[in-house]
Amino acid sequence: MSAQKRASGKLAGLPSTPSDTDGRQGNVVHDPLRSERDKAATASECAAGKGSGTGVAPVCSDDDADETLRRLGLTSTQLPGSKLLEASPDCVKIIDTLGRLQFMNRNGRCLMEIDDIGSIRGEVWSMLWPQVSRALVEKALADALDGRETRFTAECPTAKGHNKHWDVAVAPIADESGGVAAILSVSRDITAQRGVEANLRQSEQHFRALANNMAQLAWMADPTGHVFWYNQRWYDFTGTAFEEMAGWGWQRVLHPDHVERVVEKFSASFESGNEWEDVFPIRGADG
């Protein structure tokens, strides 16, 4: 078994709280190169609201990225453009082959509301996630150690307890021999998007509750006249199922003497954009 495979097996069962141990508590080791500059700069930026969901990206140096690349023995060929790591509006991280967080860009720190990067640098990345998401994170790390890119979405709160949804991409950083030297992860904050989706689902649930409890027969069609939804009252009255009624299937329950006229007027309404109103008999479930 390779050293990298052995490393991936160490990701489980480690303490989730920050530790300054030398490995006696699950090999969690802080990076010895922390600096007060990290703490002061990040704290001031986050306090000002930059990069924390306001859409304002802080202006940052790339010293930390270069320092991390050197410490991990990475070259510009393996991971070009360290300035791009800092310039990204997303949360960009470099993780070593033991699964420990070694770098997070300034915008990422602000998104995560981290005032002191030293409090988590060197910690096992998967243990910084809620228990429910750790299996996803550990699998992504294991895939990266095997040379595969992966992606997942999960919830994780910020350092100050604000829950956020993340779209996370994880990829290996190859060394000169083709092995895995480190892991790159980019997490995009999709909390606002999820909020919009939740509101849309709620609105749809309210609409369906109203439409399915009204006395009238109701349906919805696309611009071509293809019906894609009926309310429950329609199914109860006609004794049909959606598979029978989808598209233009509603013609089957119209009185044969009225089908041609109704279809003609219905189609003309879609072509002209004018309202359609008509009266016609519909066969009920009792025949």
How would you sum up this structure, described in words?
With 287 residues, the protein is an alpha+beta fold. It has helices spanning 3-8, 36-47, 63-71, 82-87, 106-111, 134-145, 191-212, 232-238, 242-245, 259-272; strands at 91-95, 101-104, 150-157, 163-174, 180-189, 219-221, 227-230. A 5-stranded antiparallel beta sheet has the order 2-1-5-4-3, with helices on both faces. A hairpin with a 5-residue loop joins strand 4 and strand 5 (180-189). The radius of gyration is 29 Å and the shape is elongated. The model is unreliable at 1-63 (pLDDT under 50).
Say how many strands there are.
Answer: 7
Q: Give me the oligomer status.
A: single chain
What's the rounded overall pLDDT mean?
77
- Binned, the helix content reads 25-40%
Descriptive labels:
287 residues, alpha+beta, two-stranded antiparallel sheet, 7 strands
Brief summary of the model shown:
The chain is 34% helix and 16% strand. By secondary structure, the chain is an alpha+beta fold. The longest helix is centred in the last third of the chain and has 22 residues, at 191-212.
Task: Provide the fold topology.
Blueprint lengths: L2 H6 L27 H12 L15 H9 L10 H6 L3 E5 L5 E4 L1 H6 L22 H12 L4 E8 L5 E12 L5 E10 L1 H22 L6 E3 L5 E4 L1 H7 L3 H4 L13 H14 L15
Antiparallel strand pairs: 1-2, 1-5, 3-4, 4-5, 6-7
